[in-house]
Write a structure and sequence with these properties.
Layout: H1 2-9, E1 12-13, E2 16-17, H2 18-38, H3 41-47, H4 53-69, H5 71-82, H6 84-101, H7 107-135, H8 143-172, H9 174-194, H10 213-216, H11 220-241, H12 247-255, E3 256-257, E4 259-260, E5 263-264, H13 269-295, H14 298-314, H15 317-321, E6 328-329, H16 331-358, H17 364-391, H18 394-420
Parallel strand pairs: 3-6
Antiparallel strand pairs: 1-2, 4-5
Helix pairs in contact: 2-7, 2-8, 2-9, 3-4, 4-7, 4-17, 5-7, 5-17, 6-7, 6-9, 7-17, 8-9, 8-13, 8-16, 11-14, 11-16, 11-17, 11-18, 13-16, 14-16, 14-18, 17-18
């Protein structure tokens, strides 16, 4: 505990604990490397390993789900055995080895690398969140803003990785992609080693059992209900956002007029747009966050995020009403994605900040692992909903995806009404 207190009172950068910026740099590196793979994994499985498109899509989905499902045992291992600082450093080393194995084109290297990547991700995701809650004092009002900054760092890394992946594949081949990814994760490992004393150890026997003031005033049952409501909000958001990489790409391809001064905007560019919008809109959110928290309340902000996701699909109604081969302006799709990102910024970082406040300190990794389990379920359901949408009318899919988060927003308001009074 003395070491944690020293870190919290120690060196600061821009009014934030130095350890927080170390974690942000680490997650930017991890997302950079991850999106070197994610943005082109289906093409890689087809072109490099000879899988069919259907097999590649199925394998990519399973890889994505596995990276989240492993966070529950990974968080428990970090909570009870390793400690989060040690787990964080160990995870970046595992991830670096995983990407290094992908430099080889052999099928055995693919499967071995996936094992390293799943294990590394299972430790990395809960440990980064545990570090954030540990470097800030209990009940610190900066936690929500810290989550938004963390989210900006992750999306900046994702945007860089997506852009570099396409350039590297086209100009230097698949091996070059993973040389870069492995080097970036190795740099993160070195960074964590150099600044290890800026991070609390997060050891089980040293961790404070004191809850935040918000959680301390609630019964364990009430706390569990609120955590469940926040996880449900995240699941509904992910279910809708999962359409961006699937159904909405097809929407852009077949229903959107994408010609701009003789240049046809690639449909795949719409997948990269949300990460860029997060970087643009996140700064504005930080500027007004304290005012919004005072006037609206943070639980109501999360519910408002679900409302924004609902409006995102309402924006597609003009395209859904178009018949035959008629295409509509791509501004409708841009409006949809913009509203989706507004919802993302209100639900993902703020919801996770609330979950971290409510979670017992000794089980932070486990609770964060549960949060990521809900993400895995959301992505799986997104695929199922996308498949049903492909077999139904455009208006039916848009209506369902507009009503679902709206119902979730109403339920969120009902569940948290007692907390806001």
């Amino acid at each position: 505990m003395a070491e944690i207190d020293d870190i919290r009172r120690g060196a600061r950068c821009g009014g934030q604990p130095r350890g927080f910026f170390v974690v942000c740099l680490a997650v930017a590196c991890e997302r950079w490397a991850a999106y070197m793979l994610v943005s082109s994994v289906v093409l890689m499985l087809c072109q490099r390993y000879g899988h069919s498109e259907a097999e590649s899509l199925r394998l990519a989905g399973l890889m994505n789900a596995a990276s989240y499902l492993g966070t529950l045992p990974g968080g428990l291992l970090a909570d009870k055995v390793l400690g989060h600082r040690r787990a964080l450093s160990f995870s970046t080393l595992l991830l670096s080895l995983g990407y290094a194995l992908l430099i080889l084109a052999a099928p055995w290297a693919l499967w071995l690398s996936l094992a390293f990547l799943v294990l590394g991700g299972a430790l990395f995701k809960p440990s980064t969140q545990a570090m954030i809650i540990l470097v800030f004092p209990e009940g610190d009002s900066r936690l929500e803003a810290a989550q938004i900054r963390f989210y900006l760092a992750a999306n900046a890394g994702a945007a860089i990785g997506s852009i570099l992946s396409g350039l590297a594949v086209r100009n230097a081949g698949w091996s070059a992609v993973f040389v870069i990814a492995a080097a970036v994760l190795l740099a993160a490992t070195v960074l964590l080693a150099i600044y290890r004393h800026s991070l609390p150890p997060g050891d089980p026997h040293e961790r404070s059992r004191k809850a935040s003031p918000e959680a301390d005033s609630l019964s364990p049952m009430r706390r569990a209900v609120l955590i469940g409501a926040l996880m449900l909000a995240m699941l509904l958001y992910v279910l809708c956002y999962g359409q961006v990489e699937g159904s909405l790409v097809l929407w852009a391809q077949h229903r959107t007029q994408r010609m701009v001064h003789g240049f046809e905007v690639p449909a795949a560019w719409f997948v990269a747009l949300p990460a860029l919008l997060v970087i643009v809109l996140g700064g504005g959110q930080l500027a007004v966050l304290d005012r919004l928290k005072r006037r609206i309340g943070i639980y109501n902000l999360v519910a408002s995020g679900l409302g924004a996701v609902s409006l995102a699909f309402v924006a597609l109604i003009p395209a859904a009403l178009a018949t035959g081969d008629k295409r509509v302006s791509m501004l409708w799709l841009v409006a949809c994605l913009t509203l989706m990102v507004v919802g993302e910024l209100l639900i993902a970082p703020l919801g996770l900040a609330l979950v971290l406040r409510l979670a017992p300190a000794r089980f932070v990794g486990l609770v964060v692992g549960g949060w990521y389990i809900w993400l895995a379920v959301g992505y799986w359901l997104a695929g199922e909903v996308g498949a049903m949408w492909a077999r139904s009318s455009p208006m039916a899919g848009v209506t369902f995806l507009a009503v679902l988060p709206l119902a979730g927003a109403f339920l969120m308001c009902l569940i948290t009404a007692r907390q806001s009074r």
